[in-house]
Amino acid sequence: xxxxxxxxxxxxxxxxxxxxxxxxxxxxxxxxxxxxxxxxxxxxxxxxxxxxxxxxxxxxxxxxxxxxxxxxxxxxxxxxxxxxxxxxxxxxxxxxxxxxxxxxxxxxxxxxxxxxxxxxxxxxxxxxxxxxxxxxxxxxxxxxxxxxxxxxxxxxxxxxxxxxxxxxxxxxxxxxxxxxxxxxxxxxxxxxxxxxxxxxxxxxxxxxxxxxxxxxxxxxxxxxxxxxxxxxxxxxxxxxxxxxxxxxxxxxxxxxxxxxxxxxxxxxxxxxxxxxxxxxxxxxxxxxxxxxxxxxxxxxxxxxxxxxxxxxxxxxxxxxxxxxxxxx
Amino acid sequence: xxxxxxxxxxxxxxxxxxxxxxxxxxxxxxxxxxxxxxxxxxxxxxxxxxxxxxxxxxxxxxxxxxxxxxxxxxxxxxxxxxxxxxxxxxxxxxxxxxxxxxxxxxxxxxxxxxxxxxxxxxxxxxxxxxxxxxxxxxxxxxxxxxxxxxxxxxxxxxxxxxxxxxxxxxxxxxxxxxxxxxxxxxxxxxxxxxxxxxxxxxxxxxxxxxxxxxxxxxxxxxxxxxxxxxxxxxxxxxxxxxxxxxxxxxxxxxxxxxxxxxxxxxxxxxxxxxxxxxxxxxxxxxxxxxxxxxxxxxxxxxxxxxxxxxxxxxxxxxxxxxxxxxxxxxxxxxxxxxxxxxxxxxxxxxxxxxxxxx
Lengths: 328, 358
Prior knowledge:
Chain B: GO terms for molecular function: branched-chain amino acid transmembrane transporter activity. The complex is a heterodimer of chains A (328) and B (358). Chain A is mostly helical and 328 residues long. Chain A has one domain: ABC transporter involved in vitamin B12 uptake, BtuC (Orthogonal Bundle). Chain A has helices at 3-36, 43-58, 65-72, 85-106, 116-138, 155-165, 173-195, 197-207, 209-214, 219-245, 254-265, 270-290, 292-295, 300-314. In chain A, helix 2 (43-58) runs parallel beside helix 5. Chain A starts with a helix and ends in a 14-residue tail after the last helix. The relative contact order of chain A is 0.18. Chain B contains 15 helices and four strands. Chain B has a domain at 21-266: ABC transporter involved in vitamin B12 uptake, BtuC (Orthogonal Bundle), CATH 1.10.3470. In chain B, helix 4 crosses helix 5. A two-stranded antiparallel sheet of chain B has the order 1-4. In chain B, strands 2-3 form a two-stranded antiparallel sheet. With 358 residues, chain B is mainly α. Helix content of chain B is 72%, strand content 3%. The interface between A and B is large, with 50 and 48 residues.
């Protein structure tokens, strides 16, 4: 096979892997949007916060140590212990549930019935707050995250493809792990929403708030539940991206990567988020590979948006979104 | 007692339809204008100019522009930073290509160029609504910033990829470049601000503004009563981008002097201007000023209190600033979704009845 084609296949495969990660973030958006009609801009910062908390707990950092040191003139530097990854993940999850509850109690409860755009702005405010809060709690330096996921080039694929085509594909073990974990996560979420009582209640709320209320489903509980699940998805996404490129501010920008995915797939569809993620992942990598060198590179920043924009002009509800019906 | 409309009789149509129908409001407006134009230039120094007055004035123009689009026409835009960049780069290209022409004219022309770009990116708004549109405007943000970063023609092939404003004078006074006089720069921006506010105010209370508001309140109903959505939406995008472009041009040429596009006109700028509009009040000219003042003054104040007063490290103060900005936005949305302008309106209502509220 010609080299160009082989490169293109490799790029496509890597694009698929990246797409899975985008889909993972987009999934958190879809869950909250379906359940409460809130477009949660803070999802990316939630991933950052979850990853920061995880690293902080694992390394035994004292929360707010910088603040405490600055205010009281003390010299605290960590508890001096290390927490195993699994326990730390559990503790982080507890934090995210607590966060979900607080958000619901302090913010969303007061904004019920407001226009969607107001709710959207509120989550932008939330994102800013959480960003400052996370940095203040755990410090803003770049941290390495290692929860024991495999990393580095997958030598089996490299050797097999070298034998077959005479060119070894570079595929990161981490990406493969991420794909598997994402697949499991989606399966678990689907099973949860189909076969458990809470999952059914969640779908009922997504369908119709009023009707759900009238059969005795507690909206408050469901919202806390959704935000907790979104927190969990954020944690998984945070672990993946954090392991890949370190836990740092740019992690919160994955929310911006997930937005075009959502537009493409439709805000209300879980399959849409996954398919959209894959399309965007492959599309932007291929575009960068084929057209990037001609126009000066770094097209990844905007390609997804422009693709989604052009797509939306022809199909305003996205690939799998519910048809928009306007009643007067 | 003081704030009364009783006895303020209107005998002509012009008298009845003036911008400030209540006498005290009008005097207040003239007073503020007089202080801003006559008193402030006498006492202003470089610190106040660069830390407070220039950002305040320039952001006020950007907020006015976004307020037309988001507050009056109901189209949420997250592309303000990108459009400011268009203004800045248009101004740069004009300044370097036609050095003999007055800088004020360059700035106005960059406004028109931005308006054209804004209308181009506003085209999808005819098909896409709500969130989808908000996200679609992000396409403008990222694409424009990338364009100015990657195409060397825009920054005149300079090695650093930055653009920096050459020295220009207006009536013999230096406006851009090093060693400008604080008062001249201040007055230069003030003229733009006052003119923008005047145009905005009169546009929004005329037929055009009413069409925008009809589209905002319910686009289908507006279409039925004869508002052309194409023209209303595109004119809102165009006029909004015009002001945003002017503010971008001023931001680059007068305030910063040298600009690296990704840093200065990134997505954070879009959010900042959006916050100004929300905190100030959607659909209010006064709100744009209040919002800009709030978002410009608060960090300065916080920095002075925390770093200067309490001796905190600057990074902690920066984190706290993020928390406070975020918290305040949520707080405002919960307590007063219509922003500072609404608070002012309520205060005026109360004042009218004071001291006999019943």
